[in-house]
Amino acid sequence: MRKIFALVLFCCLCVGLLTGCGGNKKQEAASGKNIKELKVALSPYQDAETIKTVTGPLSSLLQTKLKEKGFTVEKITMNVGTSYSAVGEALSAGSADAGFMSGATYVLFDKETDVLLTALRQGINKDTTDLKIWNSGDPEKFTDNLVTYYRSALVTGPSAKGKAILEKVKSGAKPSWEELNALTWTVMSPASASGYLYPSLFLKKEYGKTLADLSHVVQAESYTTSMARLASGQADVAVAFSHIRVRDEKKWQAKLGGTDSIWKQTGIIGVTDAIYNDTVCVSKVSKVMQNAAFRKAFGEALIEIGKTKEGLDALKILGHKGYAWAEAKNYDDERRVQNELKGKKK
């Protein structure tokens, strides 16, 4: 009898253990610890191939960090959007789980996306709207300060019209709208803060007009293309983030087509108000990002990556020096700018 009782007890224990094992597997699956694929979209800050090459190591760094936090991601796919808006559209549709994009793009798509992080940038030694300082002859330089905002600038090039309008500004005179309208402008998509929205607001404040009212405007797919047009004389003015010249100093002649130093061939004829930095946003419809624990781990991973040399090397092409947690209210000024420009964009 004792033997029969012992046998029954043993069987019950085995069944319990098997049931427990099965329950653990179900629990692990339900917690989303294993991610088959994480899809990340990158805005076209530069040409797609350059971004893909330089940010390539970011995938493995992310996988490693997420693994440390208990999440196994089998594959991380990073794609560069054809435009700033394309990244927002990908997040809205759920074809991308996370995206690196401008604050302006986030605001355009904030009903379909959540802002997770704000990028940190290396500040520059000129943080003013005073054009005399920008055109003093002293090149801009990066500082050791990490900042959460930047500005946009109207940059003239070596074309005859570009040089003429710069000389007028340097003399202290304000160009007329007719003079600006006679220039060829190279701009980014209407979803770009520094490449469209803030320069438009600048023109609206000064002239009651926006970029959409100019007669000669060419949209570029990246700032690299835009600056190449400026260097070659195809455009007289480029609108870009205010640290564009220090970023492109070395490649102005080597790759962009400049025939002399960027400091000798360019100038600044306008500087905008401060713009809150780029974002890392997540899709509201992404099944991966609906896992709150994974979303938190993803944000923590990027913040930690931004504090390492390997991480900074991978993020350099984006102009990011790390990340900080973000809140939707950080971009209220961006919302104000877009509201002021509503109805003015073509």
If you had to describe this structure to a student in words, what would you say it looks like?
The chain is of the alpha/beta class and 346 residues long. It folds into 2 domains: 34-120 and 277-336, Periplasmic binding protein-like II (D-Maltodextrin-Binding Protein, domain 2, 3-Layer(aba) Sandwich), CATH 3.40.190.10; 123-275, D-Maltodextrin-Binding Protein, domain 2 (3-Layer(aba) Sandwich), CATH 3.40.190. It is built from 15 helices and 15 strands. It has helices at residues 2-30, 48-68, 84-93, 103-108, 131-134, 160-170, 177-181, 193-207, 223-232, 244-248, 251-254, 262-265, 292-305, 309-315, 332-341, and strands at 34-42, 72-80, 98-101, 113-119, 121-124, 142-147, 149-150, 152-156, 185-187, 217-219, 237-241, 267-271, 275-276, 279-283, 323-325. A 6-stranded mixed β-sheet has the order 2-1-3-14-4-15, with helices on both faces. It has a 5-stranded mixed β-sheet with strand order 10-9-11-8-12, sandwiched between helices. Strands 5-6 form a two-stranded antiparallel sheet. Helix 2 packs across helix 13 and helix 8 (193-207) crosses helix 15 (332-341). The longest helix has 29 residues, at 2-30. The chain is globular and about 60 Å long. The protein starts with a helix and ends in a 5-residue tail after the last helix. The model is unreliable at 1-31 (pLDDT under 50).
What is the strand content?
15-25%
Per CATH, the class of the largest domain reads: Alpha Beta
* CATH superfamily caption of the largest domain: Periplasmic binding protein-like II
Mean pLDDT value: 89
Radius of gyration over C-alpha positions, nearest whole angstrom: 25 Å
Beta-strand segment tally: 15
Largest sheet: 6 strands, mixed
Shape: globular
Poorly predicted spans? 1-31
Domain unit count: 2
What is the chain-wise order of helices and strands? HEHEHEHEEHEEEHHEHEHEHHHEEEHHEH
Oligomeric state of the chains in view: single chain
CATH architecture of the largest domain, please? 3-Layer(aba) Sandwich
**Class from secondary-structure proportions:** alpha/beta
Q: Separation of termini? A: 90 Å
